[in-house]
Amino acid sequence: MEVSKKSPPPIHHSDWHHRVEGELRVANKNVFELASIAGATPFYVYDRAAVTHRVQALRQALPEQVQLHYAIKANPMPAVVNHLARLVDGLDVASHKELLSALSSGIAPQEISFAGPGKSPVEFEAAAAAGITLIAESMAQIESVAEVGNRLKVTPRIALRVNPAFELKSSGMRMTGGAKPFGIDDEQIPAAVRLCRSLGLEPEGLHLFTGSQNLNADAICEAHSRVIDLALELVEQLNLKLRFINIGGGLGIPYFPGEHPLRLSPIAENLTGLLKKMSERCPDTHLVMEMGRYLVGEAGLYVCRILEKKVSRGTTYLVTDGGLHHHLSNSGNFGQVIRKNYPVEIACTNPSETKEQVTIVGPLCTPLDIVAEKVILPAAEVGDLVIIRQSGAYGLSASPLGFLSHPQPQEILL
Ligand SMILES: *Cc1c(COP(=O)(O)O)cnc(C)c1O
């Protein structure tokens, strides 16, 4: 599919999904039709058009020179990876299996980068043989890259992940600052570059990722500026000839009441200034942003079915066939400090005007298995469907599927 960088169709960031008379639709099918297609509940459905719109809107908002990568860990479903591979400039992987799905998408190996604080001998070998850029996160990884290159008689592509001394504020999950398992401390980068060169390797890129799920544009701008300044200092100090500087992802999406979609214009404006600095000081270096959640998070729905409705001492419970074993992050157990509800909707076979407060739970024998707590929704009955929005990223693959041995849900990209 050819995708134009210009004039994407309009997109409503707070609710991507097409609606007919208030009813959610994906590929013009309502949720009952989607359940028939899935064959069973629970299931995940991802909206292909929504992913396309998101990439196009991002390209339109950001300076043209920014290259966009997709970080597969956000949603590794092969159909999603293949769809995104045609829309973005590169893929980021962090395991052998992700490496195979990235290569299988047909994207050029040099546009694939391999991050991760622990890489196995098999992973070093596969990446070096394929011509994928290995992102070294330690001195030991630099030595492993050189060793596998000697053994296979290839020159592996290597880049260095930097752990900056500063910390990014207001990020859901902090990835830099102080002691971290990720990357090489910035004060050790000169020694890391010397080690590379002594082993016959020349770093092609620097990778600096400062945090995930950030909804604060000012904090993102500050992080981008500091990261680029640090990278440019290292370029000059060490005479690096870089193909790319990867400033990571981390752009957030709104999940909870009171959160708003990220404002892209300040980020774009700041990047324009940083690109100007780069064009003066390292004109042959690309700026890469590597995004997971932002590209797919809003495009996914998780749908489960009500098995039972029961009242316990004044609380109405809807017991469903879906829960934390499929969607850990929705249950609040994947990095949240205080549990909050993801946006939840109900699709009723017999819609009524009546609303009621309910707590929706899953089938697991643990009080952690909450789908939505104390939400006011149209009165629902057994057999009706519960829809969790914002479920396209860190959903199924970030969940403890084996816990209690329920069947695996379907995943569909439509
Ligand atoms: C997880 C990860 C990303 C993507 O993060 P998002 O917050 O989903 O955008 C990008 N790069 C690396 C190295 C990662 O580990």
Task: Please characterize this protein's 3D structure.
- The protein is of the alpha/beta class.
- It has helices at 31-38, 48-61, 78-85, 96-104, 121-130, 139-152, 189-198, 217-238, 264-281, 293-296, 328-331, and strands spanning 18-20, 23-25, 43-46, 67-71, 90-93, 112-114, 133-136, 157-163, 173-174, 184-185, 205-207, 211-212, 244-246, 286-291, 300-312, 315-320, 344-347, 355-361, 370-378, 385-388, 410-413.
- Strands 3, 15, 16, 17, 18, 19, 20 and 21 form an eight-stranded mixed sheet that branches. An eight-stranded parallel beta barrel has the order 4-5-6-7-8-11-13-14, surrounded by four helices.
- It is elongated, with a radius of gyration of 23 Å.
- The site of pyridoxal-5'-phosphate has 16 residues, from β14 and α10.
